[in-house]
Amino acid sequence: MNEKEIFERIQKLISELLACEKNSIKLNTHLVQELGMDSLDLLDILYRIKLEFNIVIKDGAKEDLFVEYFFKNPTPKTMLDFVKDNTKINMNKKTQVLNFLQNPKSVYQR
C-alpha cells in the first residue's frame, strides 16, 4: 500500500465522520481549524484509523505520546505518518508471505 492509497482511505474516513466532501480534505488540512473537529472527533478518527489499518499499539506510553502530538498537529499528514510508522512490520510480513506463496522453495534454498 502506498502513501496515496493510505491518504485516500484516511480522506474517506474523515469525510464519512464529518459528512463533508473528500475533495475538501488535503494532506495538510487542519482538522480543527478548517473542518471544525473537536476533541471527541479527533479521538473517534484515531480509533477509526486503527481499525481501518489494523493497528495495535501495545506500548501505552507510545500511543499516549502520539495522541498528544496529534492533538497539537491534527492533520491527515500526521495520520498518514502514524499509519506508515505502525504498519511497516505488518506490510513486511505480508510481503514475506506473498513471496513464499509465489515461490515456496525459496525458503529452503539457502
Question: How does this structure look, described?
Answer:
This protein is mainly alpha-helical and 110 residues long. It has a single domain, classed as Non-ribosomal Peptide Synthetase Peptidyl Carrier Protein, Chain A, CATH 1.10.1200. The chain contains four helices and no strands. Helix 1 (3-18) packs across helix 4 (76-102). The protein is globular, with a radius of gyration of 17 Å. The mean pLDDT is 85.
Kindly state the percentage of residues in helix: 55-70%
| Average pLDDT score | 85
Beta fraction? under 5%
- How many DSSP helices? 4
CATH fold description = Non-ribosomal Peptide Synthetase Peptidyl Carrier Protein, Chain A
Count of DSSP strands: 0
Specify the CATH architecture: Orthogonal Bundle
Structural class: mainly alpha
Q: Would you spell out the secondary-structure blueprint of this structure?
A:
Layout: H1 3-18, H2 39-52, H3 60-72, H4 76-102
Helix pairs in contact: 1-2, 1-4
